[in-house]
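Honest question from a wet-lab person: if I give you the sequences of every part of a complex, can you actually get the arrangement of the whole thing, not just the pieces? Trying it with mine:
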Amino acid sequence: MRGNLIIISAPSGTGKTTILKELFSQTEGITFSVSHTTRAPRAGETDGVDYHFTSKDVFKKMCTADEFIEWAEVHGNFYGTSKKEVNKHLDQGVDVFLDIDVQGARQVRKKIEKECFSIFIVPPSWEEQEKRLRGRGTDSDETIKLRLANARKEMADADLYDFMIINDTVNRAASVLRAIVIAERCRNRRDAEGKPLLLPSSTPLPPQNKE
Ligand code: ADP
Ligand code: 5GP
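Yes, you can. This is the full assembly:
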């Protein structure tokens, strides 16, 4: 039985990576699709784990060869999701998270709306989001300004998503996310760990004593 394909998006700095990390530490049978990007690695990021860090030339070649389910330019860099990578996990019955922006989410929905579901994470306020983005300490002031401006635009797509979660506290947001993942597994007749449900045997019950 194939796994579920789960799109997850959030304005930059909302805390999506943090919540996903928490979810992954508590949940069996899920993985990320590792995207390709032309962005430079941040401190602590590993090639092949956080992203496949790719030159613009290679990225263009992959687009031409139709190797991406979706791709987009986000905050001045290119990002794309490889079809091969996603199908490999889904075929093994594993749920796959696509951590992609609103443009990518639109493309995936357009192609395979019935084969995926989508979740949008929002910050409790814009002030808190800016604080988180600055507090993360990974981006220059110029990048932060660009990400904040894009965040307002991305919110316009929030209603296109199946589910919305406010990241007020990491624990609360991660447990709501986990509840959604498990509920969608039950819809597909899988258990909380993601394995196919073992239904009771169809052997008829023994005849009842008539006395
Ligand atoms: P995103 O992946 O959405 O860009 P991150 O997960 O990198 O965001 O989080 C941005 C910053 O906000 C990080 O420093 C993280 O520790 C912090 N953060 C995430 N969630 C919360 C929360 N609920 N409350 C306070 N800080 C948070
Ligand atoms: P970051 O540079 O902070 O890792 O990611 C910036 C944005 O790019 C985030 O909103 C993230 O969801 C998005 N992103 C990451 N990978 C992909 C991808 O493969 N496709 C698209 N469309 N967006 C992506």
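Two things worth pointing out. The chain is about 40% helix and 20% strand. The helical segments are 16-26, 56-64, 83-91, 102-112, 126-136, 141-155, 170-187.
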